[in-house]
Design goal:
- The protein is an all-alpha fold and about 180 residues long.
- Helix content is about 60%, strand content about 0%.
- Its main location: cytoplasm.
Length: about 180
């Protein structure tokens, strides 16, 4: 049970953020009945039904976050690992930026940019990523006129952070060890 703010366990804070997001969704006027559905995301995602990567490929992930992120099994396992540590916001931000770069319509790009900013960049965002003020300022300036590169600086910082911090922890985890047995 969550007691006093100072003694809140990490899981209580995460649960509070999740409730805040769900309440925010409920308070918005839905455009269709499909908008009323709140996805249940507590279950670990399973990789697509593809062949398990070879030992050689899995061993390459130790030294290359990019190779890990390009492999469906690696990505799903990395995501599950980060979720188990309550630190999946960096990967989710990185993935949102990758999706954002694929948008062609300026209107949809502006909408997605606003959503990414509100979810990951702005102060007190539900999944706020840890970027310095300089990077945040550059990103905000880039969003005045959204382009495919609007989040590039922030995305590179988060990629570097995952490579330096999350990847080594993942490699030591049971999630990764399953691939190299």
């Amino acid at each position: 049970m969550c007691k006093g703010l100072a003694a809140l366990p990490h899981s209580c804070l995460e649960r509070a953020k999740e409730i805040k997001i769900k309440l925010g969704i409920l308070l918005q006027k839905p455009e269709s009945a499909a908008d009323l559905v709140i996805p249940y995301t507590e279950k670990a995602e399973k990789p697509a039904k593809t062949q398990k990567p070879s030992l050689d490929k899995a061993l390459q992930w130790r030294d290359s976050l990019d190779k890990l992120l390009q492999n469906n099994h690696g990505l799903a396992s990395f995501k599950s690992f980060l979720r188990s540590e309550f630190s999946e916001e960096n990967l989710e931000f990185w993935m949102a930026c990758e999706d954002y770069k694929k948008i062609k319509s300026p209107v949809k790009m502006a909408e997605k940019a606003k959503k990414i900013y509100e979810e990951f960049i702005q102060a007190e965002a539900p999944k706020e990523v840890n970027i310095d003020h300089f990077t945040k300022d550059i990103t905000v300036k880039n969003l005045v006129e959204p382009s495919p590169s609007s989040f590039d600086v922030a995305q590179k910082r988060i990629h570097a952070l995952m490579e330096k911090d999350s990847l080594p922890r993942f490699v030591r985890s049971g999630f990764y060890q399953e691939f190299i047995k």
